[in-house]
């Protein structure tokens, strides 16, 4: 249930609790502070120790809710691994230096996150996305300085391209700076682009993969199995469909997949596999990720204790067979673009290179 977080000595639970659902500034139906605290308490009771948030979740309210809970549990905080993200700057959209990876912005963001979280340090501080306007050397030295000061323990990144992550890893080595230990990236049976390049970078460089949106906004939960009916009210699919919402990749409207026969065939396949194990479709989707070599911990969000308990049941005690993993890989695959297809064909003809995996990029939005 616990795995090493990249090339570090810290151990994290293989299912992380994401807190995008904490606070009413994000989406209708999100959790109140009391409901969020109940979820956090139950998560820890079930053995979880890895909690992820961001400075811009619910305009900072998510960090504040997590902070009030951390204060309430006192010394137990040190047994947890708290992760947050910076770069987008909640409430600073119009500021000249409000959304970047400059030293000025990062130091300010870390200090404000520490204040909202009511803690002396952040275990894992992550860049929310790449910043082409700030020299990478400046951003990396800032992280190294913050680690030396004890403000943060480790740093990671999120929503990167393959070349960006490899450049960061190489430059950190050359400059002798603290390494990036994790990549938080969208990855699921409905979004497999990570397998094109990032997977290999992470495996080769010892960077932990932390998938977000593992259930693709509810599409992989089994809530919506009939293509002729609307998704249930209160679900992310329903919210995105009614509002024609396209702001977040994790909120996918009905129109995105409604006419894709492969999606419905994938859901049917998942249902058969879930029933054979007496598990839910959500658990199958999470288990598929947990059995991928590059994945360390899967970030799942929830709005109820029931959802939390269902998701946590995927963490250990059972496995998908190799045949079932292959079936799900095949059901969620689509033709590789050039040059990935050519490279895999060539690799397949090289008998001495058995270590080269044949990756299939999945159904994507």
From TrEMBL:
GO terms for molecular function: oxidoreductase activity. The keyword Secreted does not apply. One of its GO terms (cellular component) is cytosol. InterPro entries: AKR (IPR020471), AKR_Detox_Biosynth (IPR050523), NAD(P)_OxRdtase_dom_sf (IPR036812), NADP_OxRdtase_dom (IPR023210). Keywords: Oxidoreductase. Residues 15-331 form the NADP-dependent oxidoreductase domain. Belongs to the aldo/keto reductase family. Aldo/keto reductase 2 subfamily. This is NADP-dependent oxidoreductase domain-containing protein. It comes from Bugula neritina (Brown bryozoan).
